[in-house]
Specification:
CATH superfamily: Ribokinase
Distance between the termini: 39 Å
Oligomer: single chain
Structural class: alpha/beta
Strand content: 25-35%
Number of domains: 1
Order of helices and strands: EEEHEEEEEHEHEEHEHHEEEHHH
Number of helices: 9
Number of strands: 15
CATH class: Alpha Beta
Length: 292
């Protein structure tokens, strides 16, 4: 059996992105693609588990990892999302889900030899509470909380609300990733450090909070931060996914400061080009020498 650093589970999506100037680009994305790309680029072998409807099977060509490391589960519908960005920094956007993929079930997930199971969902319902509890018994669990907070209304409009089962599920999570807005929704704290303290006190053991200026890590003892230094934001989509996957896979062999620097440099470089990160560890190391 192949040995993997992590198993990354989530839907692909066809994203239709319109910037604040009205320019529109259609691109196959999703946290599972951006996450697997950054981990793979840094030299980690990952297994991607996704769901794509038969008519959309060509979407898997957008993965940057080897085809033998991709598992496609049966699915009647694929996920499709439109994003309209209202500002140049792409921090404000309106999202609409025009097609929602089927939920993942714990019984569907392959029993891989992996150190981390990474839940890289897109919307509420991709994973339920029972899924989280079951998968957390396999190995270390990492969760991007977006899929617990971002809901789809009957008309396709998307909205955020707090995770009802957070107190029940957070003790199952080793690595938890939120952005600043999601952290505030969950804790009521605008201050990212205070939010991280709350999330830790509820059971998650290593907290990442991303912001357009920096990435913050809290392990219950110390805070660590690293600035984002992108020279442009043309590749803003996938920022958090790229960062989180790079970080948790690097943590398997590095202490927090080194893993954080590598992850933040990776996403800073990635955001300068649209699409998933297609560079190398050497590219990231050269970027660190130049920018950090």
């Amino acid at each position: 059996m192949a040995k993997y650093s992590s198993v990354i589970i989530g839907h692909e999506t066809l994203d239709t992105n319109t910037d604040h100037l009205g320019n529109t680009v259609r691109i196959v994305g999703g946290a599972v693609i951006y996450s697997s790309a950054s981990a793979h680029a840094l030299g980690h072998r990952v297994l991607a588990v996704t769901k794509v409807a038969p008519k959309d099977i060509a979407r898997i060509e957008e993965f940057t990892i080897p085809k033998e490391d991709i598992v496609v589960l049966p699915c009647e519908k694929s996920t499709e999302i439109t994003n309209v960005y209202h500002t140049a920094d792409k921090e404000r956007r309106t999202c609409t889900c025009t097609s929602k993929g089927d939920p993942f079930r714990a019984s569907e997930i392959p029993d891989a030899d992996a150190s981390i199971y990474h839940l890289a969902g897109l919307v509420y319902g991709d994973f339920d509470t029972e899924f989280i509890k079951t998968v957390s018994k396999k190995e270390t669990l990492a969760l991007d909380v977006q899929a617990m907070l971002r809901h789809v209304a009957p008309d396709g409009s998307m909205y955020f609300e707090d995770w009802a089962d957070k107190r029940e599920c957070l003790p199952c999570i080793r690595y938890l990733k939120t952005d600043a807005a999601e952290a505030e929704i969950m804790t009521g704290c605008k201050d990212r450090r205070e939010a991280a303290k709350h999330l830790f006190s509820w059971g998650a053991r290593e907290i990442m909070i991303t912001h357009n200026t920096e990435v913050l890590i809290y392990d219950g003892r110390d805070f660590y931060t690293c600035p984002i230094k992108s020279r442009n934001l043309s590749g803003r989509t996938g920022r958090g996914d790229t960062t989180f996957a790079a970080y948790i896979n690097e943590r398997l062999g590095s202490e927090i400061p080194d893993a954080l620097l590598t992850a933040t440099a990776t996403v800073s470089l990635k955001m300068e080009t649209p699409g998933p990160f297609k560079g190398t560890r050497e590219d990231v190391e050269n970027y660190i020498k130049e920018m950090y």
